[in-house]
User: What shape does this take?
Amino acid sequence: MPTIVSVDDSTVPGEGSSRLLLLVSSDNKHIVVEEDIMSRSRFISKQVEGFEATSQRHAILLPFSSFVLNKVIEYCSHYRGYYLLEDDPDAAPPGRSPVREWDQEFLDVDRNMLLRIIKAAHYLEIKSLVGSCARAIADMIRGKTTEEMREILGVENDFTPEEEHSPSSKCTG
Amino acid sequence: MIAAFLLLPDDALLYVFGLLQYADLLALQITCSRIYTLILNSAVLQYNIELAACGMIDGGTTIDTQERLQRLRTYTLAWRTLGWADHNALTFVTEYLSRYSNSGSVIGYHGTDSTHRRREIKMTQLPSKLRGVRERRADLDAFMYARDVLVDASQDLVVYTPPGIPPLLNAGGYYFRSLSTGEPHGLACSPGSVEPGEPQVPRLRIALDICGDYILENVERESRVRQLSVWNWKTGAVEVYIPRGDMEINSGRFLDAHHLLFERARDPTSPRDRQGPAYLQVIAWRTPGAPLHTFLFPEFMQDRAHVSFELSPAQHSSRGDGCFFPDPTNRLISARAIVATATAPRVRYRKFHVDIPTRTLLSYVADHPSEDSVIVPWDAWGPRGTRATPAQPSDRPLRPFMVAVAVDGMRRVSLHTAPDSQETTLTILDYHPRRVARAAGGRAVVEGGVIEAGLTGDGFGEVRTRLPCIVSELPLPAALAGLAVSPGGVGLCTDGLLFFERDTGDHLENVWAYTF
Assistant: This one.
């Protein structure tokens, strides 16, 4: 059980009037971030609601490294104050997320990093980031053969030889 | 990081899969058992896969995906087994056999009154239980004996022409009405506007086709000279005019918004007999100076051949029709060429039959943007890099007499009657626009197919594209057993088949519409 750090919510330095949150990554790095920035995350928002109910604020432990966490914070900072339809819990979910140029540049990282970001985004319930990552992954495997897809996604072929023939014999249409 | 992708939760994985298309999904599905199970159990993904496999597009209704998937599967099965939901019998009087206009699931045909004058145009939306299309009927008073009727449901348009030989040209000879209200169509140009450059010669229309703002008309002038012209029905301006040259134009259709397909014969002295080498021609009519692609049957260069083609009607259905509807880009050209090799005492024919998806032809034309007009033998039409492979003479018995053929979407239906038993067989060829051959660890999307040719020992020849297709040969539905199907007496629509039964007196025709 890591240490629970209480954050004094009355002292808010800097420009914004937003309160601060303490996030602890899996490699035990403590990162202080404005609550406003992280409000895009449904997970964090729910935590904050919990704080308000109990009027106790403590650090939020996250199961991914500070490297990934910083990347997610970078994303959230970029879209601070922006309304993104996918993140609106009240809006009807869009069929698919729109292509955003900044996201494409932001996600121009290696495969493993991309998978870590989507996992973190999913954990934090940031739908817009999940959508952008999913698009980037889909772009990687589009037009590839099954063997290439296995390599890209790091997936092992776990079909038995008999099974391997049975799914392909099921032909649609 | 091994299997990092699989550590993602299911809904994140499904989010990724949801962005992929048909072929990618099929390739992905066999990467590992978890992904396979996920895709198999996702109704949305299965629905998308099966929609693409049978060339349909989702109609965006409120019916939930599981239900739509179920209906799609039943629909696909219904085309294999002809599991009719019910049938409608339509009756109409016509001199022109099967002169009806099919637009999606709406058919327009001539009505009748007590004087047996075709004053009314009747429109019926054929119902489909599976796709959730209601039956609707509407009558339009044409105030005259309408000759040609053309329905375009997507533009809420009915076009018809007056009887006889119209004295005026272009817009003057046409009536444009709204399908829903029956009023004159608000967007049509005023009747009577005549293109000044056109010679004022009475003429007879042979065929009409409509594509968006444009009407294609194939006209025959006094001297039996046939030619094509395309004009804009909203402005009345003639856009393109294809003169006869040294060849006769027999019929023409819009392949898509930019290309025309027509058929010509080289013997202008006997246009009625349509004899000479067999040609199909494609031109990009909107591009000035575009080359004319001539697709010919080399076997018929020296012979006096007869060529004709059927083209799937443009699917003018509106989006709201049904929970899924056919992809309008899936159309089939079914071309036939027949030549007599021997006359009396024993008539012999050679016949070629080629089914070509319009996509294959259009991609060929797009890949060969040469400056000059080109002549392409039919065996080069296939998809890139494929050539015709001569087929072995088959031991199959000769095809019995073909009574009728019709195409719709990627399907061709034909009725054959065996000469001895008079038993009628219905053959449905269901071509798959995108069939994926899945080998272990790989994939191949078959977009075109190989064209196969061969002559049987008896002089009958058949050319067919070896496209991936499912052939269903079925006897006629029990209710239609013993039906005297008239020549040209079968029609196809999105949801089933139409049969035309000719009554005595050659005037009254019963149309039996069988839908799913």
Summary: Chain A is about 45% helix and 5% strand. The helical segments of chain A are 35-38, 42-54, 66-78, 101-106, 111-124, 127-141, 146-153, 161-169.
